């Protein structure tokens, strides 16, 4: 009977708390949206499954060796950890109070030497880093996974529409206004006492407005890793909801006559232009803003492999097998941050709310920039393609094309919209570099 009780007390069902149950439900909802509704399935399937794994009680899959020891170790081990961290525990308090004290110390930050000593104690008594924690440390904490994915995106990107109509670069730049508007919005909410976001956290939230998942993950891993789970979920959820979010904004800001504007056929772009462009844009941006070099550098490198025509095998690997493998580990790593104690907070609602505001402002800014350019140009631009300046490639361009066809069945805007769409990718990388430069 005693052995059965020991087995029961060590089971996940016995140790399951309300927060973990809620987060497992969130993971199941993400899987439903990905599988049934096809909302960004390539990312939401591993993120949702990772979220479920991270919240299995007693498994500790998303915890470091030290965090696992604090969570489940015996009181004698907790005393050893406290000694290593340079503190003492109240002998009159219970083990749960001790755990909370140690968690607070680790979270608030202690000397690196003390943390290393405490980790050595945890490893010495048999605890090790969880599987998802190891994935996170290698894939995201190092910054590798978002950069490799950006390389794959670059290898799949055609800069031809942008080169054929360079004016659309301004539309991609304008759409990044949502990022900075949301940054100031988050700071304002914190100043008013509605939310409690630091400047770094506000910047990481604002980058959602770029509608670029890898960029959002990269920036949040540098500036606000504690918010990474909520930011990644918001970024990919809103990217999937582009067909629902953008059309009302586009129609509100344009007249039927503007939506019917027919754009002239794009000029042919030479291979030399396509080969030179990624190198030129990298050098131009990186010399002025070196902090944008990692994201933009990998993006341009992937595009150069595509366009140069002499490394087809490398280009094919970057576009397919490599990006697919990294996406699996990236998704599971993001899922590891969907733990109840960090995700179930008012800040998460603030992130989701500010994220959709950022997305809406970015869409509106792109459309309004196109209308402004029409006042100064003899060659009209259909304002709908300005909405594609958010870098949800290629979905935003498809939405612009769809809304245009509703007003004029003979007006095909897809290739025109791809110009600001890929410009938005460059713009979001530059915006990320600015954030990291001043706050990182």
UniProtKB/TrEMBL annotation:
It is found in: Cell membrane. It comes from the Bacteria. One of its GO terms (cellular component) is plasma membrane. It catalyses: oxaloacetate + 2 Na(+)(in) + H(+) = pyruvate + 2 Na(+)(out) + CO2. InterPro entries: OadB_MmdB (IPR005661). Its EC number is 7.2.4.2. Its cofactor is Na(+). GO terms for molecular function: decarboxylation-driven active transmembrane transporter activity; lyase activity. It holds the Pfam family OAD_beta. Keywords: Cell membrane, Ion transport, Membrane, Sodium, Sodium transport, Translocase, Transmembrane, Transmembrane helix, Transport. Coiled coil: none annotated. Heterotrimer of an alpha, a beta and a gamma subunit. Belongs to the GcdB/MmdB/OadB family. This is Oxaloacetate decarboxylase beta chain.
């Amino acid at each position: 009977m005693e052995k059965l009780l020991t087995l029961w007390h060590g089971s996940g069902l016995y140790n399951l708390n309300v927060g973990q149950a809620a987060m497992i439900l969130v993971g199941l909802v993400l899987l439903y949206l990905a599988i049934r509704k096809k909302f960004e399935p390539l990312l939401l399937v591993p993120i949702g499954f990772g979220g479920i794994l991270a919240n299995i009680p007693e498994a500790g899959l998303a915890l470091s060796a030290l965090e696992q020891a604090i969570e489940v170790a015996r009181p004698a081990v907790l005393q050893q950890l406290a000694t290593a961290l340079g503190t003492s525990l109240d002998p009159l308090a219970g083990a749960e109070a001790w755990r909370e004290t140690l968690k607070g110390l680790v979270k608030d930050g202690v000397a690196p030497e003390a943390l290393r000593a405490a980790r050595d104690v945890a490893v010495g008594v048999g605890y090790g880093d969880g599987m998802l924690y190891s994935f996170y440390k290698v894939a995201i904490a190092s910054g590798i996974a978002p950069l490799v994915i950006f390389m794959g995106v670059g290898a799949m990107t055609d800069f031809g529409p942008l080169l054929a109509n360079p004016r659309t670069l301004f539309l991609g730049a304008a759409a990044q206004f949502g990022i900075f508007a949301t940054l100031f919005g988050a700071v304002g909410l914190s100043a008013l006492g509605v939310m409690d976001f630091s400047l770094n956290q506000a910047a990481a939230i604002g980058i959602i407005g770029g509608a670029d998942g890898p960029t959002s993950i990269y920036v949040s891993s540098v500036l606000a890793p504690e918010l990474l789970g909520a930011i990644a979920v918001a970024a990919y959820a809103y990217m999937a909801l582009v067909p629902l979010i953008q059309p009302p904004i586009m129609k509100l800001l344009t007249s039927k006559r503007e939506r019917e504007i027919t754009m002239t056929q794009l000029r042919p772009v030479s291979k030399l232009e396509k080969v030179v462009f990624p190198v030129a844009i990298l050098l131009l941006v990186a010399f002025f803003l070196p902090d944008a070099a990692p994201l933009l550098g990998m993006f341009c490198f992937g595009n150069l492999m595509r366009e140069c025509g002499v490394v087809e095998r490398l280009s094919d690997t970057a576009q397919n097998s490599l990006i697919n493998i990294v996406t699996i580990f990236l998704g599971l790593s993001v899922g590891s941050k969907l733990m109840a104690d960090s995700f179930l907070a008012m800040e998460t609602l603030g992130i989701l709310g500010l994220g959709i505001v950022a997305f809406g402002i970015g869409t509106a800014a792109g459309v309004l920039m196109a209308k402004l350019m029409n006042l100064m140009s003899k060659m009209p631009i259909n304002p709908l393609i300005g909405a594609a300046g958010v870098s949800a490639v290629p979905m935003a361009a498809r939405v612009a094309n769809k809304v245009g066809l509703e007003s004029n069945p003979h007006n095909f805007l897809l290739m025109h919209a791809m110009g600001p769409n890929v410009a938005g990718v460059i713009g979001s990388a530059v915006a990320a570099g600015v954030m990291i430069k001043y706050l990182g």
